[in-house]
Structures are given as C-alpha cells and as structure tokens.
Design brief:
By secondary structure, the chain is of the alpha+beta class.
C-alpha cells in the first residue's frame, strides 16, 4: 500500500525549507561579517567592514557606525556608506542617534525623512562597553520595506561582535599610545641627564612632545621680566613667531600658573596674504623653576583635534622635565661663574684671566692680529684698609672694578690679578688704542669716590703681544712698565723716599722678586683650589701651600661658628697644631698660638686684615719688630659673608709686612672663591639628585608595584649596611642607590610592568635593559658615580646568572648585593599584579633557599639578623 501527501503538506514543507534556508543564510552572513570584523586591525577597518557587509546583506542604501569614547560625550561617525561629509557631521548630533545610545536593544523606526536623510525605515542597534565606550550601528532604507525580525536579530548579533572588536582595537591603540608616551618620557629623562645646555634639552623635549601628543606645532617660551615671551625652542613651524591667540594663551598660563586649553581660532593673515588660516585647539602648560613660572610650553593643532585630560597630564610631566633642565642649567652656570669670577669684585679671578690670556695668545698666533695687556695697581691701598677698615677697602675695590668694566669695550676682559691689582685684556687692539684706553681707565679710577674723600690713584703698565710671546713674558713686561710708572710718579712729585730707593737698590730688587714669586705662588694656589669641590680638601690645600710653597712657619684656617666662635679646620707648623684640629681652640694657649687666636678674633671683629708684632696680637698694626715675631690675620669672605679667617705667624728674626698682607689677602680671596664654588656645586649636585629622585617618584606613579617601595628599601638597605660594618660615606651611597635602583624602569612600558602572565622574550629583554638605562640617566651627576655602579649591577646573581654583565660573587659591588637581597625580600612581602604577597616566614625561607645561588649568603644573614631585631623591638604583624 503506497502513501501520498496532500498539497497542503507539500506547501508547509516548502515553507519550512524556505525558512530554514533563510536562517542558514542569515547565520552564514552573520558568521561572514563577524569573521571580517574580527580580522580588522583598527576601529576604522572594523567600521568599514561592518557597513559594507550590512548594506549588502540587508539591501540598504545607507549604513554607518558611530561611537563615543573615553572623555567624549558626543558621537563620532567612524565609518559610513551613502552619506556626504555634511550629513556625516549632522548625523552625530541627531536626536534619534543620541537616544539609541540609551536604548536597551535594537529599534526599528518608520517615517518619511528619518535622520534628515529622506529615509523611510531605520534600524539603530546600540552597544555599551567599559570605560564609557559606546557604539551605535545604523541601517537605513530609502524604499518602503520595514526591517523584519530576522534582519533585526542579525544586526543585533553583529553589533555585539562589532562592539567587542572596537573595544579590542581601541585598547590596543591605547596601549600602543601609552607605551609611546612612556618611551617619550624616558627619552626626555635621558636628554635631561645628557646635557646641561637648556636649549639642547628643551629642543629635544619639543620633539618628544610633538610626537607623543601628535601636535602640529610645539613651542617653548621663556617668560622674561615684564611678562614678555621669548621663544627658545620648538618645532620648525612654530619657532618663527606666535600668532595672537597662541600668545594670549601663553600669557594667561604664565599668570595662572596652571595648564589651559585654547579654543580653535582664526589666525590673523600675514600682510598682503588675504584671509587668515584656521587654527585648531591649543594646550599650554607652565614651566616652573626656582619657585616661579619661568616659561610656557605650547602645543597647537592646525585642524580639529580633541585634547584629552591625559594629554594635559602628559604635557605637565614634560614641563616638569623642562623645569629641571632650567634649574640644572642655572645651577651649573652659577657654579661656573663662581669658579671664574672674583667673589668680591665680580671680575675674572686670577685663574680665569690666565685662561683668557692663553686663549688670546693662541688666537693671535693663528691670525697674527695683536692685542694688549694692561696691569693696574691701586696706589697706597693698604692705607685705606689700615685707617678705614677692611669693609671700606672692599667697597673701594668694588667701585674701581665697576668703573673698569664700564670703561672698556664689551669684548674686553677685566680681571682681579691680586689684592689691589687689576688686569685688562684688550683683543684686536693696537698701541695707540691701548694707550687711549689705559688713559681712560686711569681717569675713571681717579674719579672713584673713595671713603673719607681721599684721592684714588693707580699705576698702569701696558704690554703688547709679539709673535712667540708667552703669558709670563707679557705679564713681566706689563709689570715692569707698571713699576716704572710708580717710580716716575714719585720722582715727579718729589717723593722719591727710602721705599723707592729700596726698590731701585739690589735689596729692593730681591724684595720685588720675592713679591712676584709670592703672587705667582698664590695664583698657582688659586688654580689648584678652583679644581676642588670638597671644603676640607680646599682648606687643607690652602694650609699646605701657605706652609710649603709660600714659606710661613705656622698657619691655620678657622671657621667662625655661632657668636663668631672660631672652629679650627686645618693647621700647619708645631705652634699652630698645638691648638688641635676639628674643634674650638682652647683659650689657654700662650705664645704664637695665643697670638694667632687673638689675631683671628680681632680680624673677625673688625672685619679687616690685622698685622701685629710679638705674641700679643692686640698690639698696634704695622711691620713687626724682628726680635718679637709677627702674626698676620686675614678674614675670609664667602659670597660676601664673613666665613672665617687665615692666620700666619713668623718667629723671631722674621718680618711680616705689607707684601705679606697682600699675599695672604690674595690667598683669602682664592679660598673664599673656591669655597663658594664648592657650595654652588653642592647645590647643583643636590638639584641633580632631586631630579633623579623626581624621576624615581614618576616611576612610583607609573608602576603601582613600586609605590612606597623605594623608601622602604632604602631604610632596610642602610640597616643591613650598618650590620655589615659600612662607614657613613658608604651608607650614604647605599641609601641613594636604594632609592634610585629601579629608575631605569621608567623606560619599560606599563603594559609589561603590569602584566599578570609570563613575559615574552622581547618583554623580558626590555625589563633586563632597565639597569643600564638607570646608569645612563644618572651619568650627569659626577658625585653619583658609586651610585651608578650599584644601580647597574643590582640584578647580578651570586652564581653569575644575573644581568646585565653576568658578574658573580665578589665581582658584584657589595652595595648591589645588599640592594638585590633587600629588594627581593620587599618584593616578596608586597602584592604584585601576578601574585599575592608572601607571609614573613615564607619570604625569609625563600631568602635562605636561594642564598649562595641568587643571593650573597653574608648579606642574607645580615638581613635576617636585622629583621629578627625588628621583630623583637616591635612584633611583626601576620
């Protein structure tokens, strides 16, 4: 018996087959779209693939993908078909699209002019992701056919895949952007440590800011007195001049002291150029140095651009580097000026003038263009000091120096050659011009208002360069000419007294040679002192030269403490050493010791040089009698403030006279200049250390795993170093190294530092480069050379399996071994992205287990002893 199917059954079966076919086609189309979307690498590619496929699948004339992102509240169309540029802009503000973002699912709408595009039917499907990421997909038909359920389901399924694909591309782009910005900051940090020329650093920063913020123009301006802006660095397009809106923004930032965003504007046209160009938005941030706004960094765009909060944060970080560059350059320049200038007169000091003289001789040898040297000596200057005091004499020297600088040409050099002697270097100057200029400076000197109205006069000698001349030969000729002028003046005035006769007599010639040797020795001492940067080394060198080279039997240097109480710093000679070094001298001493103490006290009290006869330094000033010995005490000034004093003593049969006073005054001047240079250099180094510490602080903000990490390691490392017997200096180096040991991580991308899973080979290589980067960042600080060595090697293993140099055992600096063990213990006791913290007992067990392989066993033992004592003092929390 055969069976047969009715026509109705056949029809139903056909409908079912058609429905299944449609479902299969929809599923295939959806899979195809999802595959294309997932293979896209950027948000734009995702959007283009989506609109192409949906237009074809749904037979629609118009399709678009619009998104909002972090910090954005308005829509941005990132891909569309069937829309003009104007329609694309208008679509982002359409109420239907805005409402679709808040909808729970896809909605189909029917009308006559939907979205102001003449659409009859529109399907809008929303997607919401994390961090304010949102998207809406729109499909529109100009013909009258509504979207059915299957089409709506297809679009909803595709929307979910598109949203996740957009999230993936955005996060990837954000990660790459963040890595690029961190790398730019790291390069800026290296530029900061590589140069002390602010223009070079600021130009490098401009390039990095331009790349990191994708800016069209970057300009760095210095805020001058009166608020004027001077462009000092920037991209090529921006360095010519600021337009009016940009200048206004920079001025507002300089006044407000905080970052500001400028709105898009129309820049004024150049003369005869027609309409002005349209400018996009701009961002400016202040550069702070020395507690005030020193400059402004401006970032500008030539077209529409959105400035985000993290753009402001990044530019602020760059301006911190710019401020450091300004501070470092200013401190370095101040240190160099202090090393070259006489602290009292502001003229070149003896050593710097000698350098200029040698440079001018070398230039003249190359070009055969002559020059002149003038030596100028104030007549009867000691009488001013003796009658009016040291402060009056100093004021006179400053006034004379000011007059000399005002009398010469801008390219001439004025130096203080000795106590009351000045030197002028006149490049490209012939004999007639040099003679006229010398007459002018003598007239200016005579016009100086001397204390008590006394007349001021000076003697000058001129020497002209001859081919083959040395510096000594020129100075000797100028000195002879100056002495000749002194003698001529005395003869013309009828005052050729015994002193002048002694100068002409053989004994006077010996005295003059002794005077010259003394001044040459003092100048040599000044050169030696200028190369020293430690106070103790400076003082001890001065004392050694006074005794060994200048021939004073007993001498000392004291520093004046509270209440002008003298503190002995260094001494030479049996009588001076009886006072004892390193503390306050006892007042019970007799003889030469008491004379020097009394002379120092008097020189400090009267602020002038004291020359006294015999053991009683309170005697009247003047040349000492040969049978009683003599004491000479000279105050030492540092940056215009009384710092201490030098005292020298000559025994019975010796004479200290005006020449000795001038000589020791010269030594005092050199000593004060060297001490001031050392002070400025110390400040300069402190700023460099502060710069490095600021970078370490930036690292802490960058790497959550290092928050409060460096200071804890520093304290524990010092405790371990103390346990192992390190002295105070090595403990200081160890503390700095512990604070800065991970500074090179600023060049490691956050994505690597925060990665929860295992690192790839490339990522591991990036991490292993950070000790070398840290060493490079610290290279600009000479005093941190020992710290740099520890930073470079604090990841070396005891068994030789560490990095970067594979050192083993005792080859690894002890400081590096200490920092490594302490760092490892602190890391084990801290939560990290890839694991939870270990309990104290477990962390200590790990240290013991790896002692002798990863760690130095002696350091492990010392750390465990420190931890045990800390537990006894304050029981550890579980």
């Amino acid at each position: 018996m055969s069976s047969s199917r009715s026509p109705s059954d056949s029809a139903a079966s056909g409908v079912e087959r058609d429905a299944n076919a449609r479902l299969f086609a929809a599923a295939s189309r959806r899979a195809q779209i999802v595959a294309l979307v997932n293979s896209a690498q950027t948000g734009g590619e995702v959007a283009r693939a989506t609109v192409d496929q949906l237009c074809e699948a749904l037979e629609a004339e118009i399709a678009f993908v619009a998104v909002t992102r972090r910090y954005h509240t308005e829509l941005e169309v990132i891909g569309a078909i069937g829309l003009t540029a104007a329609a694309t802009v208008a679509l982002a503000h359409d109420p239907l699209c805005r409402a679709a973002l808040r909808a729970a699912r896809a909605e189909a709408r029917t009308g006559t002019d939907l979205l102001n595009l003449g659409l009859r039917h529109v399907l809008l499907s929303p997607w919401r992701g994390p961090a304010r990421l949102q998207a809406v997909i729109g499909i529109g038909r100009l013909y009258d056919e509504p979207f059915d359920r299957a089409e709506i389901a297809l679009v909803e399924a595709v929307t979910s895949s598109v949203g996740h694909a957009l999230e993936r591309t955005w996060l990837s782009a954000e990660r790459e952007r963040h890595i690029a910005r961190q790398a730019a900051l790291a390069r800026a940090a290296k530029a900061l440590s590589a140069s002390l020329v602010p223009e070079e650093v600021l130009q490098k920063l401009s390039s990095e800011v331009s790349a990191a913020l994708e800016a069209d123009e970057v300009v760095v301006c210095r805020v001058q007195d009166g608020g004027e802006l001077q462009i000092v660095a920037g991209t090529a397009a921006a360095r010519a001049a600021l337009d009016a809106p940009q200048e206004s923004l920079c001025r507002r930032v300089a006044r407000a002291g905080r970052p500001l965003i400028g709105e898009p504007s129309i820049a004024a046209p150049a003369a005869g150029r027609g309409r002005g160009r349209r400018c996009g938005p701009a961002l400016a941030a202040p550069i702070r140095a020395h507690g005030r706004v020193e400059g402004v960094v401006l970032v500008a765009y030539c077209s529409e651009h959105r400035i985000e909060p993290d753009d402001v944060e990044l530019l602020t970080a760059f301006t911190e580097f710019a401020g450091m560059a300004w501070r470092n350059a200013a401190d370095h320049a101040a240190a160099r000026r202090a090393a070259e200038l006489d602290s009292l007169t502001g003229c070149l000091n003896h050593g710097a003038f000698q350098d200029r003289l040698r440079e001018e001789i070398a230039r003249a040898d190359r070009t055969a263009q002559g020059f002149a040297l003038v030596l100028l000596d104030l007549d009867e200057f000691k009488a001013v000091n003796d009658t009016l005091g040291h402060l009056a004499g100093d004021a006179l020297l400053r006034d004379v120096a000011d007059g000399l600088r005002e009398s010469v040409r801008p390219y001439d050099h004025v130096g203080r050659y000795g106590g009351d002697e000045f030197a002028l270097l006149l490049p490209a100057t012939g004999e007639d011009a040099a003679r006229r200029l010398t007459e002018r400076v003598l007239a200016v000197t005579a016009a100086v208002d001397a204390p008590s109205g006394a007349a001021v006069s000076a003697s000058a000698g001129v020497a002209y360069w001859r081919p083959g001349d040395t510096a000594d030969a020129l100075i000797e000729r100028a000195d002879r000419a100056m002495l000749g002028m002194k003698q001529d003046r005395r003869r013309r005035a009828g005052r050729a007294d015994a002193d002048a006769g002694r100068e002409r007599a053989p004994g006077g010639e010996r005295r003059e040679r002794r005077r010259r040797r003394g001044l040459a020795g003092a100048a040599s001492l000044g050169t030696r002192l200028s190369g020293l940067l430690d106070q103790r080394a400076i003082v001890e060198t001065a004392i050694f030269e006074l005794a060994a080279s200048l021939g004073y039997e007993d001498c000392l240097v004291v520093r004046l403490g509270a209440g002008d109480r003298p503190v002995l710093l260094a001494a030479a000679g049996d009588d001076a050493r009886e006072l004892g070094e390193g503390g306050a001298p006892r007042q019970s001493h007799r003889g030469p010791a008491a004379a020097m103490l009394a002379g120092v006290a008097r020189a400090a009290r009267e602020r002038r040089t004291v020359l006294a006869a015999g053991a009683d330094a309170s005697a009247a000033t003047g040349a000492a009698a040969q049978n009683g010995g003599a004491t000479l005490s000279v105050p030492v000034y540092v940056d215009g403030e009384l710092w201490g004093a030098i005292a020298v003593h000559a025994g019975c049969g010796s004479v200290l006279d005006d020449d000795d006073a001038r000589l020791v005054q010269s030594v005092s001047d050199y000593l004060g200049t060297a001490l001031r240079t050392a002070q400025l250099y110390q400040q300069f180094e402190q700023h460099h250390v502060a710069t490095a510490a600021a970078l370490a602080a930036a690292l802490e903000r960058k790497d959550a795993g290092t928050t409060d990490h460096t200071l804890s390691i520093a304290d524990l490392a010092v405790a371990v170093g103390t346990e192992m017997g390190l002295d105070a200096e090595r403990l200081r180096v160890l503390r700095h190294a512990a604070i800065l040991h991970d500074i090179g991580k600023i060049a490691v991308p956050n994505a690597i530092l925060d990665k929860a899973g295992p690192l790839t080979a490339d990522e591991l290589a990036a991490v292993r480069r950070h000790p070398v980067v840290g060493e490079q960042i610290l290279q600009a600080v000479p005093s941190l050379s020992d710290v740099r060595e520890i930073v470079r090697h604090d990841h070396e293993r005891w068994d030789g399996g560490g990095y970067p140099d594979g050192l083993r055992g005792e080859q690894i600096p002890l400081g590096s071994r200490i920092v490594m063990v302490v760092d490892a213990y602190h890391a084990m006791r801290s939560d990290r992205p890839y694991r939870a913290r270990l309990r104290p007992g477990d962390a200590r067990a790990e240290l013991r287990r790896h002692a002798g392989t990863q760690f130095d066993p002696a350091v492990v033992d010392a750390l465990l002893d420190v931890l045990d004592r800390q537990d006894q003092a304050e029981p550890a929390l579980a």
